[in-house]
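Lab channel / #folding
Pinned by the channel admin:
"Please post every new chain as: sequence first, then the structure tokens as a reply. Keep commentary short and put observations after the output so the thread stays searchable."

First post following the new format, from NK:
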Amino acid sequence: MKKRTPVSVIMTKNVITLNKTDDLTTAEQLFKEHGIRHIPVVSGSSIVGMLSYTDLLRISFADAIDEEEQDVDTVVYNMFTIEQVMAKNLVTVSPTNTIKEVSEILSKREFHALPVVEEGNLVGIVTTTDLIYYLLEQFN
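Reply from TO:
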């Protein structure tokens, strides 16, 4: 295992994002359509928050429905904005941070994704799943 491998090697570069003015129904559709669990919330190219699928589950009964179901009762979603539900105090990393450094951050915190930011712009996202895949590759 290479000790100085930068996180840019394993991060997702084509990031699905939301704008803070989008609604939570749109967010849920993106989560399901792309099979993802974390979506950075942006204003222009700057990240302003992170929304996780778990955040949606906390305010809804979405976990009680079938994952394939597309028609969800959106009454609860209309009661909140993305800005109210998203995490705002973000920890970010640089594309040059090492995989080891990112692993240490994720292992000590309660979240499972980190936005990757360069010069104030969102350039990627790295998740605990990315780290697990990287680790598994080391055994091949």
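NK: Strands lie at 18-19, 38-43, 46-52, 113-118, 121-127.
TO: also worth noting, The CA atoms of residues 66 and 95 lie 37 Å apart.
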